[in-house]
Design brief:
Elements (H helix, E strand, L loop, with lengths): L7 E3 L5 E3 L12 E2 L6 E5 L7 E4 L10 H22 L5 E11 L5 E14 L4 E6 L10 E5 L5 E6 L6 H6 L1 E6 L3 H7 L3 E2 L4 E3 L7 E5 L5 E3 L13 H16 L4 E7 L10 E7 L4 E7 L5 E6 L4 E5 L4 H5 L3 E5 L8 E2 L4 E4 L2 E2 L6 H8 L17 H8 L8 H12 L1
Parallel strand pairs: 6-12, 6-14, 10-11, 16-22, 20-21
Antiparallel strand pairs: 1-2, 3-4, 4-5, 6-7, 8-9, 9-10, 11-13, 15-16, 15-24, 16-17, 18-19, 19-20, 21-23
Helix pairs in contact: 1-3, 7-8
Length: 405
């Protein structure tokens, strides 16, 4: 049967002491196990590391390391914090900064923890430290109350985490204890790299960075190299409808774009629909053997839209879209209706409300970072239904306007 070796024990005065505090003068004092309460003896030999051991070997069977680590950590940290508070000293926790990624208008498009640490003094304005005391319906291992903010729960976590309800409704630090070396660490500091911090954002230093969206690329599929089987009359009719849709702000382009560098280092692709009249102010229908529409932008840039592969040569260095006869199905230039295109759209040039909408087409699981207030609940619900590609931009705008009022 293996002997359990502990670094800490209770003395006859019920004070927690370290084996380093035991000398030849006090080694015969009575010591008790912080886990099972049974008698411990100090071993101070020269061949092995000094430690406490159970006087009766059978007591090893009833003693649990988890309980020992929990009880010792809790008592030592409580004593340390109490001593520092009484002497007007600080106890710092190392927490990650909060990084706000903002667009050109200053709107936060993503909020996440950064990679750098800042220090936060948990004893600042603290007026009470208690152990195993109720705070409402909760009984944290260590409770810190303050004069100007809500209480802080310090929970010693050896094997079992706090309940989700406790972590969600309170400011909590779960202190990870794996062995006695962690007990030495927590006497100096807590650190988010090791420990877990909940509802701590208000105490983080904030770093703001401006982000640019890469150009959004129109989706297309190179179906084949043959011209469409449409007659000139049918092509002119469809191109005329494109002009009408454009003038009535009903001509959409389905685009995809990545947000690489905004969320970590992972490339994430997402999609939405853009009204082409937000990028081009004029459209002209040119009818010939190869009929096409020519869109003109604010800086006289051109976009050629047609149904023939000759469009590519007519466009030259200009941007172009070659449509398939599937365009008969609707008024959206998408992967289903485009054969080929070299069109790119810069999302950074959109107006404020539009950019705010587009910036929120972040992949599912990240959309909550777009808005901090529940007044945008309606927009979030739309996105949560995973119908991003199906929602027309007016519907999003309407939702945004409705939710903001």
């Amino acid at each position: 049967m293996n002997s359990i070796r502990y670094k800490f024990a209770y003395n006859s005065s019920s004070l927690l002491v370290s084996i380093s505090d035991v000398t030849e003068n006090n080694r015969k004092e009575q010591y008790y196990c912080p886990s099972c309460g049974k008698i411990l003896r100090p071993r101070l030999g020269s061949r092995r590391t000094h430690h406490f051991y159970h006087y009766h070997l059978l007591d090893n069977d009833s003693c649990g390391l988890e309980t020992y680590l929990h009880n010792v950590s809790k008592n030592i940290l409580f004593s340390k914090l109490t001593f520092l508070k009484e002497n007007d000293e600080s106890y710092y926790v190392n927490i990650y900064n909060l990084t706000n990624s903002v667009d050109k208008t200053g709107n936060i498009v993503l909020q996440k923890k950064g990679d750098l640490y800042s220090k936060y003094d948990i004893l600042k304005s603290c007026n009470e430290i208690s152990m195993e005391k109720y705070s409402g319906e909760y009984k944290p291992d260590i409770l810190l109350n303050y004069t100007d903010k809500e209480s802080l729960f310090l929970e010693i976590q050896v094997c079992h985490k706090s309940s989700l309800k406790k972590r969600s409704n309170n400011t909590v630090v779960e202190i990870n204890i794996n062995d006695e070396s962690d007990i030495d660490r927590i006497q100096q500091f807590l650190e988010e790299k090791v420990d877990e911090f909940f509802n701590f954002d208000r105490y983080r230093d904030v770093v703001t960075t401006e982000v640019e969206y890469p150009p959004a690329v129109i989706s297309y599929e190179d179906v084949n190299n043959k011209n469409n089987g449409l007659t000139i009359v049918e092509k002119n009719k469809l191109l005329n409808s494109i002009c009408n849709d454009f003038n009535n702000k009903r001509l959409y382009s389905s685009i995809s774009y990545n947000i690489n560098g905004i969320i970590g280092s992972t490339i994430r692709d997402t999609h939405t629909k853009i009204i082409l009249s937000d990028f081009f102010h004029n459209i002209q229908l040119l009818t010939d053997q190869v009929p096409y529409c020519e869109l003109t932008g604010s800086k006289n840039e051109k976009l050629i839209i047609g149904f023939d592969h000759e469009i590519k040569f007519i466009a030259g260095n200009k941007r172009f879209i070659i449509l398939s006869e599937n365009y008969l199905k609707g008024n959206t230039l998408s992967q289903d209706t485009i054969i080929e295109s070299n069109l790119k759209l810069d999302l950074n040039k959109l107006d404020d409300s539009y950019l705010l909408t587009v910036s929120c087409f972040i992949p599912k699981g990240y959309f909550m970072s777009c808005f901090k207030e529940m007044k945008y609940r309606m927009l979030i619900q739309l996105m949560n239904q995973n119908e991003i590609e199906l929602i027309k931009i007016e519907k999003i705008r309407k939702s945004l306007t409705t939710a903001s009022t």
